[in-house]
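Sequence design from tokenized structure. All designs in this work follow the same two-part layout: the structure record, then the generated sequence. An example of the structure record is given first.
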């Protein structure tokens, strides 16, 4: 028997025919899946909300020879406030892009919860910096994926504050390469505590100043891009907004 129901987030959609879409979903129970959803571009479609980017809900499927079609959708959240802030919108877009890159067709509940937490904080936590949300998300993704940067990538006694992609982590001043990113000690302290619970880690990040959050963001995205061999176009756009 194929997939019947699952809780999922829309990572991507593509229009086809006159009113249909193909969805890339990331589900808590089944991992990454593709499914058609028909007639959703019609105004009266009951499935319309379930075909939008970031939509979270319980999807019901018809499985015909391994081809899934969405037949039902129970709304949990649309994270609508994301559409009202360009920075938060693109932070959320980068989150779903990253999950689409690392997710498999196997259940990954921890990764699912990490994504939903990030979307929730970006949409509803107006007091927290979008970069704190994004940094917390990427720390979680890199840790879950087993590709967290090495914090002592050289054997020298100096402080390891210089991130070098080719060394897969942080080295001292003497070992840094021409292309490096320097972090301050507070951000390094956060990385050393990546094993903390998500809520506690996020709380730590909300106490960090914006300049340090930007530096940490640059390291985490650079490391994810290098390890996954993936260029994130959404990160390019964020860079123009954050570092102009």
């Amino acid at each position: 028997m194929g997939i019947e129901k699952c809780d999922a987030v829309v990572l991507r959609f593509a229009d086809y025919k006159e009113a249909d879409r193909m969805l890339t979903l990331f589900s808590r129970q089944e991992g990454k899946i593709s499914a058609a959803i028909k007639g959703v571009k019609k105004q009266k479609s009951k499935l319309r909300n379930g075909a939008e980017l970031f939509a979270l809900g319980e999807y019901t499927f018809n499985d015909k020879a391994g081809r899934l079609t969405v037949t039902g959708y129970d709304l949990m959240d649309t994270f609508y406030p994301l559409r009202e802030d360009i920075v938060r919108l693109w932070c959320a877009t980068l989150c779903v892009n990253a999950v689409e890159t690392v997710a498999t067709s196997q259940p990954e509940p921890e990764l699912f919860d990490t994504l939903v937490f990030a979307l929730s904080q970006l949409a509803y936590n107006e007091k927290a910096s979008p970069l704190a949300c994004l940094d917390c998300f990427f720390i979680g993704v890199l840790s879950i994926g087993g590709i967290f940067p090495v914090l002592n990538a050289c054997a020298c006694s100096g402080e390891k504050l210089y991130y070098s992609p080719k060394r897969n982590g942080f080295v001292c001043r003497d070992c840094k390469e021409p292309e490096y990113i320097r972090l301050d000690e507070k951000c390094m302290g956060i990385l050393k505590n990546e094993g903390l619970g998500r809520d506690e880690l996020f709380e730590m990040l909300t106490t960090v100043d914006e300049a340090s959050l930007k530096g940490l963001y640059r390291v985490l995205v650079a490391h994810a891009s290098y390890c996954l061999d993936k260029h994130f176009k959404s990160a390019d756009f964020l860079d123009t907004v954050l570092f102009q």
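Residues 210-228 form the longest helix (19 residues). We note this feature because it recurs in several other targets discussed in the main text.
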